[in-house]
What we know:
Blueprint: H1 48-57, E1 64-65, E2 70-71, H2 73-82, E3 84-85, E4 90-93, E5 96-97, E6 102-103, E7 107-108, E8 113-114, E9 118-119, E10 124-125, E11 129-130, E12 135-136, E13 140-141, E14 146-147, E15 151-163, E16 168-169, E17 173-183, E18 188-189, E19 193-198, E20 201-203, E21 208-209, E22 213-217, E23 244-247, E24 256-259, E25 278-280, E26 286-287, E27 293-295, E28 298-300, E29 306-307, H3 309-316, H4 337-353, H5 357-372, H6 380-393, H7 399-421, E30 429-435, E31 442-448, H8 461-475, H9 486-515
Parallel strand pairs: 1-5, 2-6, 4-8, 5-9, 6-10, 7-11, 8-12, 9-13, 10-14, 11-15, 12-15, 13-15, 14-16, 15-17, 16-18, 17-19, 17-20, 18-21, 19-22, 20-23, 22-24, 24-25
Antiparallel strand pairs: 3-4, 26-29, 27-28, 30-31
Amino acid sequence: MAHPPHSAPSPTPPDWSYCGRGATPEEPVGCRGVHVPGRTACLAHLADTDRDVYLEALTAGSDIDHRGTPFTPTLLTALLAALLDPATGRPRFGAARFESATFQGPARFESVTFQGDAWFTSATFEDAAWFELANFQTSAWFEQAVFERAAGLGPFVCAGRVHLSGATFNGPVTLSFSARRVECRRTRWTSTAELRLRYATVDFAHAVFEYPLTIAAEAEPFVTPSGQPVRELPFADAPDATVRLVSLRGVDAAHLVLADLDLSGCLFAGTVHLDQLRLEGACLFDEVPTGTHWWRRRPVRFTQRRALAEEHHWRANLPTAVRGWNVAVFGAGHAGPPQLAPVYRALRKAFEDSKNEPGAADFYYGEMEMRRHDPTGTSGAERGLLHGYRMLSGYGLRASRTLGWLTAAMFMTIVLLMGFGLPQDSPKQEATGTVAPGGGKVTFEIEKADARNPTGDRFTGERFEKALNVTLNSVVFRSSGQDLTTTGTYIEMVSRVTESVLLALAVLAVRNRVKR
């Protein structure tokens, strides 16, 4: 894919004392490299003798400032050699400022230690950029940086934050590092990319990518080319290497793969093509509060399921909120049921497309919950139906709830039949007939006495067996043939409809739970 040409340099001069070499009427600013201390030119345009004097004065751990400076591979090599630590044989910077610098050839920062902040904000890497085994002891800033060719950022360790917001990667890139936080807001990727991380909290809001991009958590430490594990001293006290994604807002997820990430605090509202997101491995979501809670002296329990961070934030701010909902979801804003219902629907489809049918069930439940609470997009009648559907069967997913209602309905039917539905005694048949005078054909009429309403002790073992037989047949919508009173006939009719429906809902719930 062809990349658009770089825009012309800004005519606005930088806010530091700059070199100005090569200024022309078309480019009145000229070289933007900051002055070397005590000189009137940048490191690239210093006279050879002055450059040698400057480099010889540097020692391992020196702070350097080369903002806006153009670096050739030879010049960068000379700078790294001047900062070589005799004890380790590796370059060591104090604070390093390379904002708006241009690296005209391969930029190799392998095994470099940055004791202070490393600033590469708005820097341009015209060729490959390599930070193999670099060690950032505070934070690394690559905001607005441009990587024109393939880049390999890592594996390295950053004790603070890695700032990649607004950076542009025009070639394939692999980012492998251990860091406390990774900022990729509005980062642009125009080729394939893979982020393999440890310990990090990742903000990916409004990132743009046109090719497959993978964000994955590494369970084991990174290894050096020689096969040795990379030392992660800043994270020695960390309980685990969990990677947490906190935002995908504004992202087109059609080409995104997430693997083994903690998504319990991730903001999904506003993500495009979320149904095409691929979730691999063990991606964790938050869950609804467990146990029994109290609101105005009434017990409140929630059906256990996975829930989005935005739902936690929304419920925690309701007047009816109970403990357990997480109100501290930064950036959740005013997302509520109208915004979250399509998010749950898209994630459900993503799980189903990945053949994780059981995992999709929780997101279907969440979608129904959001529709039930949405007064703008769901009519009152539909919300009433959803409320009943939830109460009876947990939206067709909770077989135990339906079986509970079925058991209660059967018990009530048995009690009503024993009390009012079974007759006092089984009606007996009577046959009467007449014989014509002189013999001949005899005609009989067989009549059955009306069932008498029960009196006396109605709750006996015999009556229980009869009521149970009627009830069990009603569940499968079949008549038992038992004689009943008029009231009992109506009880049986109602139970045949009600209990058959509840049995069907229970079967559907089991099927959905297994299928999903």
